[in-house]
Amino acid sequence: MTALSFRLCSSPLICRATLDHHATDASFIRRAADLSEMSAGLTSPHPNFGCVIATPSGKVAGEGYLYAQGTKPAEALAVEAAGEFCRGSTAYLNMEPGDCHGDHTAVSALVQAGVGRVVVGIRHPLQHLRGAAIREMRSHGIEVNVLGEDVQSKVLEDARKCCLLVNAPLIHRACSRVPFSLLKYAMTLDGKIAASSGHAAWISSKLSRTRVFELRGRSDAVIVGGNTVRQDDPRLTARHGQGHTPTRIVMSQSLDLPEKANLWDVSEVSTIVATQRGARKSYQKFLASKGVEVVEFDMLNPREVMEYFHLRGYLSILWECGGTLAASAIASGVIHKVVAFIAPKIIGGSKAPTPVGELGMVEMTQALNLIDVCYEQVGPDMLVSGFLQPVPDLLPVIPSEDATFEIDPSVNPFESSIIFFYKTWDLYGSFSNFSPHPIRMPYGDGYRTWSSVEHYYQANKFVGVENPLAHDCVEKIRTAKSPEEAAFIGRSKQRQQPELVRSDWEDVKIEVMYMALKCKFSTYPHLKKMLLSTAGSVLVEASPHDLFWGGGREGEGLNYLGRLLMQLRSEYLGESSVSAENTSLAL
């Protein structure tokens, strides 16, 4: 039944049946949205996918969620859990499939399992993925209903909003070209974030501080200003003992920072200092000696810094800064959401700092109003949260991508002589060594299956070393749940215990990566086809900070990953040319 016929429905029985049907769909979509956040805090932020498969009788047959970048899709996990009950069932997805560009595992799983209907909460917000999976599922005869487009009602709109909120970081990143930024602060009832002396430990309760640790675990990075480093000497860790720990970022224009600070200890988690170009070169060298990364900007301001970390692939950033930097970030338009813990305390003080500094507003009518405000009591404190900027709507515009595709399937707005790739969900994301494509490679006297190219690459750092710790490290990497975790184990061990790394690693690492990439693209024909389709284009791994495998921030990187892919492409093209020549001679 269409949305129009529903609104004009004259039969109470038909209307009631439709409402019940919509209520069922909405319930399962909300469940898929809840599922999609199950790995929050355990892995670095990524697009959130959840899938619920329900039988015609309305019973849940299987569920799944994407654990991390480069792991098995939610849809495939749900199909495995549901088994034979998939046939004729309905799959509920909070978002259109597309956790890795160029990978069709999610759609293939639903098609091969015999799923009859798919309900999608929202289309994928990234342009190169948006609508592709929906078109593919429909081409296989699956009925696909997209909330807000194919089916509409109040209860479905509420469910669709849950889908928007659960992927707000991805949507804001796609629309604004900066990471989703959340400003968090704790203040007293009279609006102070510290006493006049600067002392601030502790304003909020232990329960509230635990919630802050959870917010950090959901973020790629935590940002503070130089004043916070000088006065509070924070650690900015998630302190949960497992899972994801965000990068620490310090913004300081003058680098007037102490030589001793908790943030300069990078043994467990990295720190990045963003500063004005040319600031205190001697201090920059000091930070580099500590393992702290320094990034210079021509104009140090929140907008420039956020655009840089957008290029670095960050989805979500938590701002835990003082009032001056908070005001600058708000004025720059990079803060999307505010979370405030209000403690039932009064500290007073005309010079005591407040959460937000000068914004230049002189009348109350100029005040910024929060959207979708929520209130929650956390122990003795009150948690108030809301959006400064609404989550962008993803309803299609005219002409939509589907309409354009139907008019001219050859239209491709992404053609370029230089092709960049980085995160798996980016355009050409399957080129990434983090993509979810298992490979079978020689190991010892036989072969082993590795969950990704990154798993194999990291493990090879320790292969052949006669030390039980090295053997343990290889096994931990092999069984890591995601490429992200495999990389963390490998990099940490290499940094902390360099004696475990094989002595010839620097000489063989390029060959190791090349053989793994060759296995991957030879194993998956659609990936090989995608690689060959880029003939004539330069391939660049767009990491702005990895100057060996990536292209760097301004093209200063060696781009070895891009080079190896172009070398592999050339090898494949050569084989095709020889094959064509032999065929011609045979004729």
Automatic annotation (TrEMBL):
Q: EC? A: 1.1.1.193
Record-level GO BP terms: carbohydrate derivative metabolic process; riboflavin biosynthetic process
Source organism, top-level taxon: Eukaryota
**Keywords linked to the UniProt accession:** Chloroplast, Glycosidase, Hydrolase, Multifunctional enzyme, NADP, Oxidoreductase, Plastid, Transit peptide
Q: Which PROSITE patterns match?
A: CYT_DCMP_DEAMINASES_2
Q: A GO molecular-function term, please?
A: NADP binding
Catalytic activity entry: 5-amino-6-(5-phospho-D-ribitylamino)uracil + NADP(+) = 5-amino-6-(5-phospho-D-ribosylamino)uracil + NADPH + H(+); 5-amino-6-(5-phospho-D-ribosylamino)uracil + H2O = 5,6-diaminouracil + D-ribose 5-phosphate; 2,5-diamino-6-hydroxy-4-(5-phosphoribosylamino)-pyrimidine + H2O = 2,5,6-triamino-4-hydroxypyrimidine + D-ribose 5-phosphate
Q: Where in the cell is it found?
A: Plastid, Chloroplast
Cellular component aspect of the GO annotation: chloroplast
UniProt cross-references to SUPFAM superfamilies, sorted A to Z:
Cytidine deaminase-like, Dihydrofolate reductase-like, YbiA-like
Which enzyme type, at the first EC level? oxidoreductase
List residues of the CMP/dCMP-type deaminase domain: 23-145
Chief subcellular location: plastid
Task: Look up the record and name the pathway of this protein.
Answer: Cofactor biosynthesis; riboflavin biosynthesis; 5-amino-6-(D-ribitylamino)uracil from GTP: step 3/4
- Write out the similarity annotation: In the C-terminal section; belongs to the YbiA family.
From the Swiss-Prot or TrEMBL record, give the protein name: Riboflavin biosynthesis protein PYRR, chloroplastic
User: Which species expresses this protein natively?
Assistant: Brassica campestris
